[in-house]
């Protein structure tokens, strides 16, 4: 170990001048990106779509109103203390808010979830049922061709594709028209008008054929076509996530989702669907919808947000205004119309929505035991706006009942050293299937296994293929030897399919006058990349055009951005930039991702040292928000968008790209729990999508449940980077990078602590993820990273392996208790050693900066039932 250097005299003098405790507090959540014109917002909803959206929303919303009338309200409003227009102001989310007031103190327990929430009653007055096609559109003539209006139809004589009128909108340039025509196998010659008409006529014919086929199957409309997975042996012909049929009843979730498709910028629909998810017990999905409603309402109410994304404000205003006009049915003398025509316009009606979604956020975070997030979000609204005593009392009473418990839970979680460092602020969510997810992926099917072996095992960089993936009796997958393997032979070698690399500013080098470490290549992580230096204007123009061999715009040093570098090509090998452009560097290229790196690494305040102008004090580490997967999540989104462009399939979902589909899914997650935080699971993913140009309000193929599916697949399958070079007998030391359990950063001791992140780089190897784990080095294989190509993983035999024998390896150097195994593997460890032990005695021992809980601690080792209810 090198001798540690002593701090300089200037550092000691500065350290004595720390601000008093409590003067500088870390921000509650990571910062948002500074967005401007990244997203191309969709068209304004048409009158027919607005009317239908209102009709769809009003049906389940009226059921909430009926429940309010049926039973006395335990916390009724006092008309003498309320504004005389309080009922008129609540016409958007009044029923949701009043229904919330019935149970505003504690979230719903497991036995209180309502799978049939907001369903209408049948004629018997007891049975709950959905709505028929006639309930929505009225009695239909059997011979009438009546297809409900949708966002893909255009009653003005044109066709809308990708949200834009083919005949009228500027969006359809000649380049886009030719690309779409070529994808459909049509001629691409001609001027713009000819190309527009050709595409229009082809789409009209396609819609007529689809309508004819739908009528024979009683399906009149379908939304979100499921991606065809016939290459994996999964047939999805004419299958949709949301089907509209004349013979099947629609559920409240279907109606709300349909309304959102028709009018995505109306926060009313997001609030209503959020509350429905809350009632059904899908608290993570409720938070996702509430977050989008929050973003929309902030554009209306916050002048600092209003003009930062041009076009969004006008669309939100238009959607709400038209919704109110449809509701009032043209009554000009209605008090709500007089309010809307007054100085604040539709903003008179927004406060009810804000109170509703903030109550949903607080209750959902409380239900998921996200105590740190709950601490910050519970009082978010009361600190910013004035409210009537009744509205404010709900927040204050809930906080008074919970404040003491939150302090205890937070303190206990921070000192719980059986948790990983990045989990110290996380709650947990169950792995039960989501309502709209397709549970048709059978990983044990013969055709599925054949494709898996062909794509991820046969493409191993080893000269001889000696292994294959097979299904076990418990329907799990495992890797087996197809022929005898001698000790020391390489079994598997491959480079990552998806990667996430975190850049970090080594602040400690400033304090101790240490040299800055070299910047590593973005593709292979070599320590000898092309340096990031200033370039002349001629070369800069070539780089910006995308024609340079080794450089792209991301490599040009620019103040305020996060620079990256790539290795040069040599010995006939393509440059790392070329590899990146083929595999992962698509839409992310040229965008500023400093905010995303900051969301995963230590942060510092602006307090300056007297002898230096650099950053002075680490106040927090955003890694504790469980954001360690954020960079690799960005790559998954980027790859998904590129695959959509390449295949012409705009409905491909991120969790079903080839790299993620073979990994564990909902069938394996039924009894599992996953870490959850507001930042890592909600805020940062949606900010990534916006930064990539995705409209998070219109594109429901990136809905909240899709994001959670991706995060769960990554959580149990990714491998962190190992910076320690392997020796003759490489040992698995990567757990010291991924599972470091250091204490949270204390800003009063900031310069003395190691400020580098626990996890700096993460890789996904789908082939490696197929190997099962065994504890305490009991496996017959081992793995490490290659010295020549630093991010290539190599698996070799530790002993002689017979044909037909399963190949297993150790993920961790140390043993795992059941709670830790569940968090790492997605389920309890099933190796022979763990199965032979009647008790959970393979506990972590205090080492490498870890220490056991005190004897009087209330942690998982002492009261397993309490803690394991959170994680397992």
What do you see in this structure?
By secondary structure, the protein is mainly alpha-helical. The chain has 3 domains: 47-372, no CATH class; 421-498 and 631-871, Beta Complex (Beta-clip-like), CATH 2.170.270; 503-599, no CATH class. The protein contains 28 helices and 20 strands. Strands 10-19-18 form a 3-stranded antiparallel β-sheet, with no helix packed on it. The protein has a 3-stranded antiparallel β-sheet with strand order 11-16-15. The protein has a two-stranded antiparallel sheet with strand order 1-2. A hairpin with a 2-residue loop joins strand 3 (160-161) and strand 4 (164-165). The model is unreliable at 1-16, 142-147, 149-157, 508-515, 609-615, 722-754 and 839-872 (pLDDT under 50).
Key attributes of the depicted protein:
single chain, about 850 residues, mainly alpha, Beta-clip-like, 3 domains, three-stranded antiparallel β-sheet, 28 helices, 20 strands, disordered N terminus, disordered C terminus
Write a brief caption for the model.
The protein is 36% helix and 9% strand. It is mainly alpha-helical.
Topology record:
Elements: H1 9-15, H2 47-70, H3 86-89, H4 94-101, E1 120-121, E2 128-129, H5 133-137, E3 160-161, E4 164-165, H6 174-183, H7 192-216, E5 219-225, E6 240-245, H8 252-262, H9 267-280, H10 283-301, H11 303-306, H12 312-328, H13 335-340, H14 350-367, H15 371-377, H16 389-414, E7 427-430, H17 446-457, E8 467-471, E9 477-481, E10 490-494, E11 498-501, H18 507-512, H19 537-544, H20 576-583, H21 594-598, E12 602-604, E13 618-621, H22 630-647, E14 673-676, H23 678-691, H24 704-715, E15 719-720, H25 735-738, E16 761-764, E17 772-773, E18 781-785, E19 793-797, E20 808-809, H26 818-825, H27 832-835, H28 864-871
Parallel strand pairs: 17-20
Antiparallel strand pairs: 1-2, 3-4, 5-6, 7-14, 8-9, 10-19, 11-16, 12-13, 15-16, 18-19
